[in-house]
Amino acid sequence: MSKEKSDIQIDSEIVNGIREGDNLAIQQLYQMHFPPIAHMIINNRGSREEAKDIFQETVMVLYNKIVDHDFVLSSKLQTFLYAVAKRLWLKHLTRGEAKYRTDSIDDYGESLTAEEAIDDHEIKEANLVQMEDALNGLGEPCKTILYDFYIQGQSMAAICEKFGYTNADNAKTQKYKCLQRLKKIFFKK
Amino acid sequence: MKGLNQQEFITWADKYLRGELSREDQLLFETYCAENPGKAELFAQHKAFLTTMVKAESRSSFKRKLQRVAQDYHEAHASKPAAKVINIWDRLKLNAAVAAAIAIVSVFSTLWLTGYYKNLKKTTSDYSALRRDMNTVKRNVNAQNAAIRNIHNSKDDVKETMHYGATGFMITKNGYVVTNYHVITGADSVHLQNHKGESFKADIVFTNPEKDLAILHINDSTFKLTRSIPYTFKRQDADIGEDVYTIGFPRDEAVYGQGYLSSSTGYAGDTLAYQISIPVNPGNSGGPLLDKEGNVIGIISGKQKGIDGAAFAIKTKALMETLNSIPADSLKGKNVVLNNKNLLYNLSRTDQIKKLQDYVYIVKVY
């Protein structure tokens, strides 16, 4: 009983850690949950490299779920991750990227939740990937200005100093132009 | 406030979103938005856009972290596959050992049952004997006769005494005898014994290792000069197919052997020898090879292993060359004068042998 409790505790610690982007939590997640998933994938005609990719995608699904909603673990983290990884691997196989289709992975009750999570993830993922691409396509110094202002939350004065603008108005104008460009790139796609 | 352009509005909205406005200004912004639906929409869009941006950024930073962790993890676990292999080996070690043992036992028992080892022993012993023979040849016998099996009779198993036996025959009536070099090599003393059982001590006068010939001289007070030798030496090459015979001592009694001349060259194309087809055995070495008229045409020297009926005889020509090359000092005034009167001509084979056998000796080497 006490072990069960400690498992749940560890799970929620990891979830919180991921929400805050804690490195230790990610490490723990990897050490605890990668081996069984890798085992499952390697046993089902996968390579270690493929296992790595699938696990990464699985973690991203988890991450999106954690960040977006008030995520509540309805089951053990292991079960959730396993189900998601399984769905992803099946998808990967049926997509024809791997040579053979396999039916050897059985369905579990958790698969429905996993399916939803993945679908949800894919829609958001598309949006976010588009944004990432837009940001990457923006180029310097726009990218850094926007990053500093909107994400780091730095003041206009600090940015002004960092980039050597003569007054805050100039910096503001520059920032506005950058933002407009980013929007243009983002919405065009 | 009505004439606010888009840039100014966005700046204002940013300030609102960042909470940099005072409570009063916040209310002002909210009412402004309520009054201007167009601007309100712009604000909503801007806000959503910024949210997406923040999310994308935090997501990509998370992804980077994850990748770093993954990299660290995989570097730390790089040796894992090896461990796996070792595990499998540990698990299957016993099975593998048992399987290997069964395989080995079955292979060797099958080989033994099918008589493979008997054959193997035979072949290897033949082979090693040939090799030993070759070594002996290298050490003792001339290069032309390399790999020819020496025909000298090992009468005594005690190796230390070097007790060998072979054949030799007289070439002049004053006591010169010829035999093979390989017969007398390493000899302490040489004795000649005729078919009557009389034994004489002999000196080695001259040896020619290249031609495998040795000239001995009987040096014994009991030896009486004989009458002239009944056979002559034929200096020309004999023809293939000629009827030939020999007398030798493969055992203590003289043994007659008959055959034909089968090739005009000897072992490995040796032009100073014939190939003959006569059954010869260890002990025949040094025996005379005669044609049907009683001319000596060669000296039996050896045979090739593994080939039926391939015996070799050194040509008389080689004997002549050897005799001519003996230094005068070695002869001590007793010249080598060859007989040129053939007493065997037109005699029957049995009569030829009766006359001949007085001049053929067992060479005993100690």
What fraction strand of chain B? 15-25%
| Structural class label of chain B | alpha+beta
Could you tell me the radius of gyration of chain A in angstroms? 21 Å
The counted number of beta strands of chain B is 15
> Main β-sheet of chain A, in a few words?
none
Number of domains of chain B: 3
- Global geometry of chain A: elongated
CATH architecture of the largest domain in chain B: Beta Barrel
Total of DSSP H or I helical runs spanning 4+ residues of chain B: 9
Low-confidence stretches of chain A: 97-104
InterPro entries (chain B): Chloro_Bact_Ser_Proteases (IPR051201), Peptidase_S1_PA (IPR009003), Peptidase_S1_PA_chymotrypsin (IPR043504), Peptidase_S1C (IPR001940)
GO molecular function, one term (chain B): serine-type endopeptidase activity
Pfam family, one (chain B): Trypsin_2
Keywords (chain B): Hydrolase, Membrane, Protease, Transmembrane, Transmembrane helix
How does this model look, in words?
Chain B: Belongs to the peptidase S1C family. Chain B: The chain crosses the membrane at residues 94-117. Chain B: Keywords: Hydrolase, Membrane, Protease, Transmembrane, Transmembrane helix. Chain B: InterPro entries: Chloro_Bact_Ser_Proteases, Peptidase_S1_PA, Peptidase_S1_PA_chymotrypsin, Peptidase_S1C. The complex is a heterodimer of chains A (189) and B (366). Chain A is built from eight helices and no strands. Chain A is mostly helical and 189 residues long. Chain A is elongated and about 60 Å long. Chain B folds into three domains: 6-73; 125-149, no CATH class; 153-365, Thrombin, subunit H, CATH 2.40.10.120. In chain B, the strands form two sheets. A six-stranded antiparallel β-barrel of chain B has the order 9-10-11-14-13-12. In chain B, strands 3-4-7-6-5-15 form a six-stranded antiparallel beta barrel. In chain B, helix 1 packs across helix 3 (37-76) and helix 2 (23-35) crosses helix 3 (37-76). Residues 124-139 and 154-161 of chain B have low confidence and may be disordered. At the A-B interface, helix 2, helix 3, helix 5, helix 6 and helix 8 of A face helix 1 and helix 3 of B.
